Backbone:
């Protein structure tokens, strides 16, 4: 499954993952090469500072157990977490998606149970695909109008353990995809025409509800 771009706000299509991998491994692929190019021409003045912070966290994680982590790194991590906290109702009050018969054209395949819910004139269908072989797993889905018809270019966000992991827009067929899938309670936020809809896909401790494992 392909990776969706995370919300980093960086220029030139650079994601947070690109920055982290460049800080750790250098220019190893297209995404990290874009980081190196942006760094060399100075299009993003804060890029060098962010790379330095990424490397500092890497070095801190390599410290011997019991050695104190620098206070400025603790503050930086807290800022990053706070920036990704989702302003939404408590997860337990979200709309729960329920298993439904498989629909045609779902990218997760027949092995992944199809979950769905209807709210605010919107019908959300999603599949939580667990890790298989070299596949890291993820979430695939589709957004439609309850009365019929796809909803294209609608923003959908993946939320895991109360944190915004990634956001993407539905394509012309109303479909979306997120990968890889972190562990934890999984939810989706759909920025529908009538207002945001928050849908709980799973609440299992391992990130997959019993009826959503594959």
Residues:
């Amino acid at each position: 499954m392909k990776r969706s771009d995370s919300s980093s706000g960086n220029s030139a299509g650079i994601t947070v993952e690109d920055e982290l991998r460049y800080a750790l491994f250098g220019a190893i692929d297209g995404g990290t090469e874009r980081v190196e190019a942006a760094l060399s021409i100075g299009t993003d003045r804060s890029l060098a500072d962010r790379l330095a912070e990424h490397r500092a966290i890497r070095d801190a994680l390599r410290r011997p157990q019991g050695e104190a982590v620098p206070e400025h790194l603790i503050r930086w991590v807290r800022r990053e977490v706070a920036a990704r906290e989702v302003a939404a109702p408590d997860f337990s009050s979200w709309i729960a998606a329920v298993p439904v018969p498989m629909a045609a054209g779902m990218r997760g395949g027949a092995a992944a149970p199809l979950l769905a819910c209807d709210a605010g004139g919107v019908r959300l269908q999603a599949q939580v695909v667990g890790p298989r072989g070299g596949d890291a797993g993820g979430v695939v889905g589709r957004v439609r109008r309850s009365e019929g018809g796809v909803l294209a270019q609608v923003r959908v966000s993946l939320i895991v353990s109360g944190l915004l992991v990634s956001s993407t827009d539905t394509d012309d067929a109303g479909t979306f995809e997120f990968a890889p899938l972190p562990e934890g309670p999984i939810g989706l936020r759909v920025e529908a025409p009538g207002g945001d809809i928050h849908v709980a896909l799973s609440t299992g401790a391992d990130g997959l509800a019993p009826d959503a494992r594959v």
